[in-house]
Amino acid sequence: xxxxxxxxxxxxxxxxxxxxxxxxxxxxxxxxxxxxxxxxxxxxxxxxxxxxxxxxxxxxxxxxxxxxxxxxxxxxxxxxxxxxxxxxxxxxxxxxxxxxxxxxxxxxxxxxxxxxxxxxxxxxxxxxxxxxxxxxxxxxxxxxxxxxxxxxxxxxxxxxxxxxxxxxxxxxxxxxxxxxxxxxxxxxx
Length: 189
Prior knowledge:
Layout: H1 25-35, E1 43-47, H2 53-60, E2 65-70, H3 73-86, E3 91-95, H4 98-104, E4 110-115, H5 128-134, E5 142-153, E6 165-173, E7 176-183, H6 185-188
Parallel strand pairs: 1-2, 1-4, 2-3, 4-5
Antiparallel strand pairs: 5-7, 6-7
């Protein structure tokens, strides 16, 4: 894997073994082509960060800061290594359960929040995508006009977002779909 564009273009990114399911270069290139106008000085939150590829791509393309959150020690060690090898500034790594982080991350606002949770594969698995969309702690972290970008499997059970989330775009890339949400507080009332 590599950083696709920006100041760290072509720098290699390591992927933690058995922890992450990294977004493909094709998917990241398409995603960041859509987001390019929003990246200048953006504050980014990367949930279930894995290798940190989404944060690193954001920083390389002009984001001001990126906070990478992952519960796995192997993933956070890999992210720190990737930050060092790319030479990108503005990244913070938090080793924590994503939902515990959301419950304590007060007074922060992000223009872009990425989430690439483990996929729901069979009945009985945790549906992290639905848990995120139902978490009342997530919307207050999104800056006005910001986007919550959720990666999910193309074949998935129905999503059940809190009233207030508006799905503004959906793009499929093979087995993976990217959902773009905005928070509309007037819809939540």
